[in-house]
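Subject: Protein entry, chain in single-letter code together with its fold tokens

Area: Proteins and the way their chains fold up in space.

Attached in line: The record itself begins immediately under this heading.
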Amino acid sequence: MPKLRHIDLREFPYAVTTVTASREPLFEESKAADIILEAILFGKRERWYYFLSFVIMPDHVHLIILVSP
């Protein structure tokens, strides 16, 4: 697997998007959406990042985060 280049700019927000396999609308089910929500909140509680905004859509998730120092 190739190593991806990454710029670490802690003072700037990151836009993060992830999609489900084959864009299946998995998060239409509230149980699946709750699992993703809990994962997002876990990262916040662990202070891995501060989130500015997020949205959970049926087949993808968007986050705007600041990486913790």
Notes: The chain has one helix and three strands.
